[in-house]
């Protein structure tokens, strides 16, 4: 009979991932590579927003994209058409990416020399909020058809993000989405969050967002 | 499912611990989950077999200890359960209190050799 004993661990469940994420962030800082973790529900417009963002910035900086949509490489092809470096990550059915998977993705992408890398996370508002990927900034998209009460249902996601893009504002007339109510709810959870209403389709509002992003890259590389 | 990723994270942490301490067999993993944590113990139990399948922990058992959502009243210092008393001190009816426990979500210990 073996001698079993009780061994104390006393570690938070996310401690290990948080440590790996901090190491990755420090590494990316050394490399002057700003990693953005882009999150939303499926269909909110992550890929469409990526394409318009890349088209606005690709002439002034080197951009890379990591696609983590489950079991599909449609999105990677869409991005590849913009001429940007892109890799499709296979998450094996997982509902989020952790720091270790992100690090492997960056290696696969060949991220040296990039100024900006955008990770399109798995479409989901719960799990990605709890796993730090090592990104410098978290950005989420809420689209008009989803409703202005989403912040009430997914408070953690809205609290951890630096930027909220409210997408599909071209469709505002068809839905009873109250932009002011949504903004107030989000600011209550997270007073420092930047909110940009955009239409990835028509390009409306996109410039304010890409201006912010340009500034974030500059701050990351110069501070 | 949401809880599955978290259970994988538990297994990863335990694996690190096992390697670091030269353990050969883990009989039980004990988690502590607060009543106000976002995790639902029932779902954690349901995901566990899938997470250990085909690993060295295939025979390992899972125990979850629930930590009550306790608060101390800022007025009368009474300690009470936040959920049971609907966020209000049962002694003086104050709504001003500080949380003592209830948001935990950690790996407490393993029974191993
Ligand atoms: N009307 C409108 N449709 C959009 C907008 N952005 C994206 N879409 C559409 O929404 C659908 C999902 O977009 P996609 O970028 O694939 O979302 P993802 O799943 O978050 O990557 C597609 O049919 C897009 O054409 C927008 O600003 N306005
Ligand atoms: Mg997509
Ligand atoms: Zn009291």
Features of the shown structure:
heterodimer, A: 223 residues, Rossmann fold, seven-stranded parallel sheet, 8 strands, B: 113 residues, hypothetical protein PF0899 fold, three-stranded mixed sheet, three-stranded antiparallel sheet, 2 helices, 32% strand, binds magnesium ion, binds zinc ion
| Pair of chains with the largest interface and how many residues each contributes | A-B, 25 and 29 residues
Judging from the principal axes of the Cα atoms, what is the shape of chain B? elongated
Reading the helices and strands of chain A in chain order gives EHEHEHEHEHEHHEHEH
Give the overall pLDDT of chain B as a whole number: 91
> Which ligands, by name, code or SMILES, are bound?
guanosine-5'-diphosphate, magnesium ion, zinc ion
Descriptive overview:
The complex is a heterodimer of chains A (223) and B (113). Chain A has helices at residues 15-30, 46-57, 74-80, 99-109, 127-130, 150-153, 155-160, 179-189, 206-222, and strands at residues 5-12, 34-40, 63-67, 85-88, 116-120, 137-143, 163-167, 194-197. With 223 residues, chain A is of the alpha/beta class. Chain A has a seven-stranded parallel β-sheet, sandwiched between helices. In chain A, β3, α3 and β4 (85-88) form a beta-alpha-beta unit. Chain A is globular, with a radius of gyration of 18 Å. Chain B has 113 residues and is of the alpha+beta class. Helix content of chain B is 27%, strand content 32%. In chain B, α1 (2-20) crosses α2 (41-52). Chains A and B meet through β1 and α1 of A and α1 and β6 of B. Residues 46-47, 69, 75, 120 of chain A line the site of magnesium ion (MG).
């Amino acid at each position: 009979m073996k001698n079993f004993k009780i061994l104390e661990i006393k570690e938070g469940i996310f401690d290990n991932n948080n440590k790996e994420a901090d190491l990755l962030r420090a590494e990316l800082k050394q490399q002057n590579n700003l990693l953005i973790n882009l999150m939303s529900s499926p269909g909110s417009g992550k890929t469409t927003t990526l394409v318009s963002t890349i088209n606005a910035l690709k002439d002034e900086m080197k951009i890379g994209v990591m696609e983590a949509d489950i079991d599909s490489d449609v999105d990677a092809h869409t991005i590849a058409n913009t001429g940007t470096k892109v890799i499709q990550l296979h998450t094996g059915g997982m509902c989020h990416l952790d720091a270790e998977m992100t690090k492997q993705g960056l290696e696969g992408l060949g991220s040296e020399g990039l100024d900006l890398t955008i990770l399109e996370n798995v479409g989901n508002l719960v799990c990605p909020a709890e796993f730090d990927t090592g990104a410098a900034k978290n950005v989420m998209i809420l689209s008009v058809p989803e409703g202005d009460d989403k912040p009430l249902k997914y408070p953690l996601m809205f609290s951890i993000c630096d930027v909220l893009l409210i997408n599909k504002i071209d469709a505002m007339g068809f839905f009873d989405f109250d932009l002011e109510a949504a903004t107030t709810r989000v600011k209550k959870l997270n007073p420092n969050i930047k909110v940009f209403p955009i239409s990835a389709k028509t390009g409306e509002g996109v410039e304010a967002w890409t201006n912010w992003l340009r500034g974030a890259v500059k701050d990351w590389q110069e501070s | 499912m949401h809880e599955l990723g978290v259970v994988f994270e538990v297994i990863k942490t335990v694996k690190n611990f096992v390697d670091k301490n030269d353990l050969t067999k883990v009989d039980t993993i004990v988690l502590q989950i607060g009543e106000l944590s976002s995790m639902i113990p029932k779902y954690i139990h349901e995901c566990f077999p899938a997470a250990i399948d085909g690993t060295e922990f295939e025979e390992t058992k899972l125990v979850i200890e629930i930590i009550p959502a306790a608060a101390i009243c800022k007025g009368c210092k009474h300690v009470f359960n936040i959920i049971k008393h609907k966020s209000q001190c049962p002694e003086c009816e104050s709504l001003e209190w500080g949380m003592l426990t209830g948001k935990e979500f950690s790996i407490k210990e393993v029974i191993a050799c």
